[in-house]
Amino acid sequence: MSGHLDEDIARVAWNDAGLAPVIVQQHDTGEVLMLAWMDAEALRRTLTGARAVYWSRSRGEYWRKGDTSGHTQQVVAASVDCDGDTILLQVDQHGAACHTGTRTCFDGRALTVRGGD
Amino acid sequence: MSGHLDEDIARVAWNDAGLAPVIVQQHDTGEVLMLAWMDAEALRRTLTGARAVYWSRSRGEYWRKGDTSGHTQQVVAASVDCDGDTILLQVDQHGAACHTGTRTCFDGRALTVRGGD
């Protein structure tokens, strides 16, 4: 199991800061909840624990989603993209994903699409 | 219209390289197709044209999705997240989103979720 976990973590192409962006999606509805960041240790904790763990770039610390807010994310599935530099995490979000209290971090924040040729 | 467009673009908190990550989602099924990057000009072209335009970090050029592959992305909706540093773009994807030929860039690239406490 341990070797396999290391292989999974080694599939991620971490950026110069040792991080990768994580797209967090509600597993059943498909809602995009938020974008967060992980390093290798955050991914290890996420794949081996029941809940999503991120790296906070602003606070410089690990952050298990919901420890403060109670709005936990149960991990359902994870994958990497074709060039390995992005993680997609499918979760079951309890309550609001956004610290502002909205369900997703994108709610009510639309840009106007004007269309064209 | 022009002033409004500038206001929309000014809502994005571009990173030190002048870029923001863009989560690209199929508008009706909720599939996460890919992650790409935009600068202000790519966002301007995307919000005023009919098709998604990104900034290619590897090639250092604008890239209107589908010009080479034919696998275009019609822009349906766009939004920013709570701190403005991520864009969510909802599109109608024609054909494969991934250059490898899979529908999304995450297809068949699962990491093993082990669960735990």
Number of domain units of chain A: 1
The CATH topology annotation of chain A reads as Ubiquitin-like (UB roll)
Strand order of the largest sheet of chain A: 2-1-6-5
Largest beta-sheet details of chain A:
4 strands, mixed
Top-tier CATH class of chain A: Alpha Beta
Order of helices and strands of chain A: HEEHEEEEE
Computed structural class of chain A = alpha+beta
Strand content of chain A: 25-35%
Tell me what the CATH architecture of chain A is.
Roll
What percent of the residues of chain A sit in helical stretches (DSSP H or I)? 10-25%
Low-confidence stretches of chain A: none
- CATH H-tier superfamily of chain A: Phosphoribosyl-AMP cyclohydrolase
Q: Given the structure, what is the number of helices of chain A?
A: 2
Based on CA atoms alone, the radius of gyration of chain A comes out at 15 Å
**Integer average pLDDT of chain A:** 95
Q: Distance between the terminal alpha carbons of chain A, to the nearest Å?
A: 53 Å
* Outline of chain A: globular
Give the assembly state of these chains.
homodimer
Topology (SSEs and partners):
Two copies of one chain form a homodimer.
Chain A: H1 2-10, E1 20-26, E2 32-38, H2 40-48, E3 53-56, E4 61-64, E5 73-80, E6 87-93, E7 110-111
Parallel strand pairs in A: 1-6
Antiparallel strand pairs in A: 1-2, 3-4, 5-6
Structure commentary:
The structure is a homodimer of 117-residue chains. With 117 residues, chain A is an alpha+beta fold. Chain A has one domain (2-93): Phosphoribosyl-AMP cyclohydrolase (Ubiquitin-like (UB roll)). Helices cover 15% and strands 33% of the residues of chain A. In chain A, helix 1 crosses helix 2.
